[in-house]
Amino acid sequence: MHFQSTSLSDATLIELQPFGDQRGMFARTYCRDKFMAAGLPTEWVQQNMSTSANRGTIRGMHFQRAPHREGKLIRCVRGTILDVIIDLRADSPSYLQHEGFELSDGNKHQLFVPPGFAHGFQTLTDDVEVTYLVTERYTPLAEGGVRYNDPQFAIDWPLPVSTISDKDAAWPLFDSLHPLAL
Ligand SMILES: Cc1cn([C@H]2C[C@H](O)[C@@H](COP(=O)(O)OP(=O)(O)O[C@H]3O[C@@H](C)C(=O)[C@@H](O)[C@H]3O)O2)c(=O)[nH]c1=O
């Protein structure tokens, strides 16, 4: 696996190293030693998956407030997504910057999302499945979010929004958040 830095401090794109043969392909998706050497987390407490039926669906932009901030390792195992992360760490050189990454069953890239980032994605195909590891347990009282179309970030979503949860459509704008809400 190859670890590539991104425009956002500590966020890492991980390319798998595939071994192909007549049966198909093998690759490690997680390797404790390599993650440790790359300075990435090695303790994951949940593995989650979601499916989304329609192209254009948005989930996000989500985070958990301190002290429950989560690191996430995202992979799209069916279809294609644009995965977007926003650095919300006030002490970071990339504070308030965002970047999008195409993750698909074709490229098999994984994205490490550091604690303190907001995370979300838009499906670019129908029938998408995403799986991710997280470093903290789900803590509903610590759930937070910022609106996917917050003008502060002006994320360039590639498709019109076809489907979004009521919760995600109603997250506040970043401007209105108290610093303790992060
Ligand atoms: C995230 C989560 C949700 N749930 C429940 C709550 C709710 O009833 C149902 C669906 O939850 P949500 O609507 O929050 O699911 P979803 O919008 O897919 O939430 C996910 O979105 C992506 C973008 C992320 O970054 C994830 O960390 C997570 O926040 O599942 C759990 O039981 N455990 C969990 O870890």
Automatic annotation (TrEMBL):
Subunit composition and interactions: Homodimer.
PANTHER family: DTDP-6-DEOXY-D-GLUCOSE-3,5 EPIMERASE (PTHR21047), THYMIDINE DIPHOSPHO-4-KETO-RHAMNOSE 3,5-EPIMERASE (PTHR21047:SF2)
Function (record text): Catalyzes the epimerization of the C3' and C5'positions of dTDP-6-deoxy-D-xylo-4-hexulose, forming dTDP-6-deoxy-L-lyxo-4-hexulose.
Pathway the protein takes part in: Carbohydrate biosynthesis; dTDP-L-rhamnose biosynthesis
Keywords: Isomerase
Protein name, UniProt field: dTDP-4-dehydrorhamnose 3,5-epimerase
Catalytic activity: dTDP-4-dehydro-6-deoxy-alpha-D-glucose = dTDP-4-dehydro-beta-L-rhamnose
Listed GO MF terms: dTDP-4-dehydrorhamnose 3,5-epimerase activity
GO CC terms of this entry: cytosol
EC number(s) given by UniProt: 5.1.3.13
Sequence similarity: Belongs to the dTDP-4-dehydrorhamnose 3,5-epimerase family.
Site label Participates in a stacking interaction with the thymidine ring of dTDP-4-oxo-6-deoxyglucose, positions: 138
GO biological process terms on file: dTDP-rhamnose biosynthetic process; polysaccharide biosynthetic process
InterPro entries attached to this UniProt entry: RmlC-like, RmlC-like_jellyroll, RmlC_Cupin_sf
Enzyme class (EC, first level): isomerase
Catalytic machinery residues: 62, 132
